[in-house]
Amino acid sequence: MSEVSELPFSVRDYECDLQGVVNNSVYLNYLEHARHVFLKEQQIDFAALSKAGINLVVIRAELDYKGSLTSGDSFIVRTRFTRKSRLKFLFIQDIIREGDEKVLLSAEVTGTAVNSQGKPFMPEELANLLE
Amino acid sequence: MSEVSELPFSVRDYECDLQGVVNNSVYLNYLEHARHVFLKEQQIDFAALSKAGINLVVIRAELDYKGSLTSGDSFIVRTRFTRKSRLKFLFIQDIIREGDEKVLLSAEVTGTAVNSQGKPFMPEELANLLE
Amino acid sequence: MSEVSELPFSVRDYECDLQGVVNNSVYLNYLEHARHVFLKEQQIDFAALSKAGINLVVIRAELDYKGSLTSGDSFIVRTRFTRKSRLKFLFIQDIIREGDEKVLLSAEVTGTAVNSQGKPFMPEELANLLE
Amino acid sequence: MSEVSELPFSVRDYECDLQGVVNNSVYLNYLEHARHVFLKEQQIDFAALSKAGINLVVIRAELDYKGSLTSGDSFIVRTRFTRKSRLKFLFIQDIIREGDEKVLLSAEVTGTAVNSQGKPFMPEELANLLE
């Protein structure tokens, strides 16, 4: 397990749906943003890689929703990063509400990198990070 | 397995991200919309239930991303609905690209209903549907 | 005024916010999608242009919100396209609810095209369309 | 002109579209969030009002897009709040990129409040703020 990173967020009202809580799809936005910030802290820039023809892609996501975020909530996304197999990496991510520290979402997000020919591979920057 | 339903979609350009493909979170939007249309065809109205204090909620989602949707693509979401346990129901959903019929996403989405006191229960409409 | 185009839509529940109506930002999604479909019908492909280094961009939007879309609503976006100046084009767009034909939004969206050096210009395809 | 408020943001990659820049609709999300934070600092809670049957609604938006936000950008939303007429209030908002302080968007957003009978009115909290 290489690194643990925590990123603070606040719910924005437009992220809530007609049930008055954050829509289930928005959690994937939070998780993605936390992964990209984590990678950037490790000098890996998702957007720059994409421009260079290297696309980091999600190939599997498992999401356990344990409670709801709502207007006014603050929370952190905790991100851990580890190797899953030769060409796959795994982000283990939790969304934890500020105040009562309740875990509202637990996620495992598996990714790989795809080169400009569409072939999966492991970029050196990520391989180094996973050592 | 009670029902199979298919709903056609077209990618909208604003759903694509800087990689030029539909962002991974948007698939959850597609799946949710297909579930709500499916339920409405069965006379179960997500928004009306919510107003009445009954919230249908996702408690787990497993998503296997097998390929990317991009600008110009049309696709269908195929939705099957079944009982998972006494208080849980399961949607088995696939996103299938038009043209080559390739399955680009396979998902299992587990839900339950929560009453106005926050207690899980199985609304009669859903129970009937699941028989 | 070169063309009038109408595109049908249905509200998707995830587009509604905690007020139970479609969030004001989502109308811009609807308008953009209708513009891109309109352009594609004229053989102008927004995504293909972008890949070729030509970006169609919005430089001004005026939006009059006259009523709210909500869960269950169907509507059309009516799009008219005209020249505004040498380098600017104008989309005049209305969102009209199905059933009572009420205009819920009137919009004027001014755009231009930017080449790969970031310079505004009028692509020949658009110029022809505007004649 | 009652108040000026500034709220810092960072672009999140999922907010960028296939042109590699923040999609034009997302600016409305930023502006809304800044307005709600501003109001909350004045003890006016958008979500709580909505639950109480009082909906603050946008009735007109004028947006001048002067430049693009992209991956990696930080920016502030500057919000000023003023009275427009007896029942209408006006937010004057700018999006200013960090670093070169360039104004990328200038907006005027007109709103009103609607009570549970759908009638426009001016809630006392807002009237006090606008004095």
Structure description:
- Four copies of one chain form a homotetramer.
- Chain A is α+β, with helices and mostly antiparallel strands.
- Chain A has a single domain (3-130), classed as Hotdog Thioesterase (Thiol Ester Dehydrase, Chain A), CATH 3.10.129.
- Helices cover 22% and strands 40% of the residues of chain A.
- Chain A has three helices and six strands; from the N terminus they run βααβββββα.
- In chain A, strands 1, 2, 3, 4, 5 and 6 form a six-stranded antiparallel beta sheet that branches.
- In chain A, strand 4 (89-97) and strand 5 (103-114) form a beta hairpin.
- Chain A is elongated, with a radius of gyration of 15 Å.
- Chain A starts with a strand and ends with a helix.
- The A-B interface holds A 18-19, 23-26, 28-29, 32, 47, 50, 55, 57-66, 68 and B 18-19, 23-26, 28-29, 32, 47, 50, 55, 57-66, 68.
- Strand 2 of chain C pairs antiparallel with strand 2 (55-65) of chain D, so a sheet runs across the interface.
